[in-house]
């Protein structure tokens, strides 16, 4: 393969139409950023991390700036990175006041003997690694505050607001020209979650997975369902058993919804470089780059293209 394959998502769920364009702008910017970084570094890990950081900076998404609020009105963020060569992984959960949880997950992968760090200890590690602290005011958007108010007013039922209950988790997966793969996912979780709630996103096999011998995946959607179903791992199993990524992603999400409820979406690349996009939610923002063309969409059956 002469070109890398890069796929991103900007969250699955009940996304109001008014949010489509900001999400398109964000996912297209993320793909372009990833492409530039890949050209400069030849590192698919750097490229996908950069794509996720680009969306963490963009308040159209529920990750980094724009993260949703827990029941106490706080932001607790989570992220996972996994590389497919040696199946190394790094995760964080319950982190506060940093701009790029995905960068911290990478530090866990590369600078500790562990996979997963949590809460204030993860924040202490961030300080040690030289991460700057950002204020709650920077991370907390009016959309996130409105979403929590609406959630509380409705007696704790999921409400579709401008940003939905938790839509807008972000992910980027990629394969370089040597077949090396990576998976990156970052989120603020779901609006009105209990303080300390851990979602699917930082859990390998649920929020993402990566193995150069099979493929790479990032998921999004109702995390408590995704975690119970081990959605990323289930989709890997389907590909290992010969399903093409498009079918594996869609059937994986549909089977999760049928078995445990909730809805989800997934982006997938197989070891052959084939791309799969699937979601059982009403929408998922996705985009991928292949042969100089960006393909993207958000509604079922929507398939748009634009030059890089
Ligand atoms: N929109 C999302 O993907 C939310 C995330 N999966 C969570 O439940 O924490």
Automatic annotation (TrEMBL):
Cellular component terms, GO, for this chain's entry? cytoplasm
Protein biosynthesis among the record's keywords?
A: no
Residues marked Cleavage (site): 168-169
Which Pfam families does this chain map to?
Asparaginase_2
- List residues binding substrate: 197-200, 220-223
UniProt-listed InterPro entries = ASRGL1_meta, Ntn_hydrolases_N, Peptidase_T2
Q: Which residues form the active site?
A: 169 (nucleophile)
* Function per UniProt: Has both L-asparaginase and beta-aspartyl peptidase activity. Does not have aspartylglucosaminidase activity and is inactive toward GlcNAc-L-Asn. Likewise, has no activity toward glutamine.
Its quaternary organisation is: Heterodimer of an alpha and beta chain produced by autocleavage.
> What protein is this chain from?
Isoaspartyl peptidase/L-asparaginase
Query: What species was this sequence derived from?
Result: Sipha flava
Gene it is expressed from:
LOC112693781
